[in-house]
Amino acid sequence: DVVGILCLVSVAAKLDFKYHHDKELEEYLKGVHAAYPSLTHLHSIGRSVESRDLWVLVLGRFPTQHKIGIPEFKYVANMHGDETVGREVLLHLIDFLVTSYGRDPVITRLLNNTRIHIMPTMNPDGFEATKEPNCYYSRGRYNKNGEDLNRNFPDAFEINNASIQPETQAVMNWIKDETFVLSANLHGGALVASYTFDNGNSVTGSSKGYSRSPDDDVFIHLAKTYSSNHASMYKGTGCDNRQTFPEGITNGYSWYQLEGGMQDYNYVWGQCFEITLELSCCKYPPADQLEKFWKDNKVALIEYIKQVHLGVKGQVTDKNGNPIPNAIVEAKGRPHICPYRTNEHGEYFLLLLPGTYVINVTVPGFKSMLKAVKIPDNTGNFSALKQDFSFSEVSVRPRVASCPKIPLYQELTRASAAVKPTLHILVLMTAILVIFK
């Protein structure tokens, strides 16, 4: 009935600048989904230690499932329960996206060409446990088991002995189930965009105080995209006199070393470029400041999503036109330690800055295919350059290939120190040695 519809719309439209606790957050997300059922999909990817749902709202023209050629993007906030600005900013981002769709041509094109996943809180227990909001560290940072979720992921550099928490496992499964291309996680306690790697060793140049990934240029661009579109992050002043961040960005390792971080896990094992956004000097500021935080971040949040359309994408198929999953697709000169592979649809997405690259596609057991591509800046067109590959002699499905969760870069340092490599290390080395020539 009309009254019911009006009620739904008013539920979706009424979003105050205040902190939304667990029940209110759930009600708001359900209200948005009810008001915009064809544009949104609401699901829980798992539960916290105290059995709170880990809600994700998906927005896009095809919200319920992946569509070939449409990249997947995600924002995750409130991983540390007492860092609260991101949680509320993402609710206002949802509100802005659904109410602008069909009215604002840029937002309409963005949602038609991107599938956007928004998780307002990864640590609902920590948020609820923070009874006394303040600007500094509190116990609410951790999950109910007292674990820091941003030290809880497998690490590419050293063995992480932390026992994997339900919230972490849920996110790891989610990354495995979707073809995420770009992501950011929202924190508080500083004002900076921080990028991979957070950990490092001699292979990535950590002895020089900087841990460089093969896609360092792309990460710098991503971090600058956010900071330069933020009201003040780009000034790089930091939160006290001791700390400055030129242009409002930092390499994670340069700032401080951290083991088991989510952004490195996304990049190494999830084939997803993620940066960490520190949005407020105060971890849990008064609610009357939330409107200003939303205004400060609004443009940056949108501009950052557009970067999912950087680079090149396409499908790898066999002689019958069937997709080839698990084919390795890399840009020459920047192989990943876990080679980036096609998904079940034979799709690949490589984030690359404008320029000329040689794309190397390998179907295990067959010879590689090389193709030079000139990549323009297509972010304004909401589509990366499309480049498909067809293997005329292949009509088999390669076996599922997964990268071991061992500290991969640790193995590289051992091998380079003339330790006798085992067979599986040799296989790994072959795929990636090019980078260290």
Automatic annotation (TrEMBL):
Q: What is the lineage of its organism?
A: Eukaryota, Metazoa, Chordata, Craniata, Vertebrata
- What are the BP-aspect GO terms? peptide metabolic process; protein processing
Q: Which Pfam families does this entry report, sorted A to Z?
A: CarboxypepD_reg, Peptidase_M14
Record: active site: 278
Q: What are its GO cellular component terms? A: extracellular space
Checking SMART domains in the record gives:
Zn_pept (SM00631)
Put simply, this protein is called: CBPM Carboxypeptidase
Any one GO molecular-function label of the UniProt entry: zinc ion binding
**Peptidase M14 domain span:** 18-308
Q: Which organism is it from?
A: Pitta sordida (Hooded pitta)
Keyword list (alphabetical) reads: Carboxypeptidase, Glycoprotein, Hydrolase, Protease
Gene that produces this protein = Cpm
Which family does the entry's similarity section mention? Belongs to the peptidase M14 family.
Annotated PROSITE patterns: CARBOXYPEPT_ZN_1, PEPTIDASE_M14
